[in-house]
Specification:
single chain, mainly alpha, 8% strand
């Protein structure tokens, strides 16, 4: 992420994504997949306990909200986060490659425009030279040469 975009992201209250930190957390966590059962989160085999959702005051509660939070946390298990990080890194790499290709194309375009301008100047100079020679020959009585477009 560019420094400008990073500053704008932080200004919105969104923290930068530390991919390396997330990778370390994923490696240290209980491997997925995870499942939820009510407010509990665990692994599918024998519902091995990973965690339990509490309300904002720290109280145990078995509400629709706590069950939804548990389902969400279970869905965001290490295998899923690892896959998302892989996709993020691949997308960022592709963006860098696309940017580099775009810059290369811009440089090539500038080179070609410079060559075109030089060719147009040379063409104009040759036309002027031809016209001068045509006028000289006409002055000498030679029949006019066919004009070139």
């Amino acid at each position: 992420m560019t420094p400008t975009k990073a500053a704008a992201t932080q200004a919105k209250g969104i923290e930068m994504i530390d991919i390396n930190k997330l990778r370390r957390l994923v490696q240290a966590a209980t491997p997925g997949p995870w499942v939820s059962h009510g407010r509990y989160i665990g692994t599918p085999r024998h519902m091995s306990y990973i965690g339990e959702v509490r309300d904002q005051c720290g109280n145990w509660s078995d509400t629709e909200k706590s069950r939804s939070d548990a389902a969400y946390i279970a869905a965001a298990n290490p295998a899923v986060i690892n896959e998302l990080l892989d996709r993020l890194e691949a997308a960022e790499s592709a963006r860098r490659d696309d940017y580099q290709n775009w810059m290369t194309a811009l440089d090539r375009n500038a080179e070609l425009l410079a060559k075109l301008e030089a060719a147009e100047k040379e063409r104009d100079a040759l036309r002027a030279e031809l016209e001068t020679e045509r006028m000289r020959l006409t002055a000498c009585g030679v029949v006019a040469l066919r004009r070139m477009k």
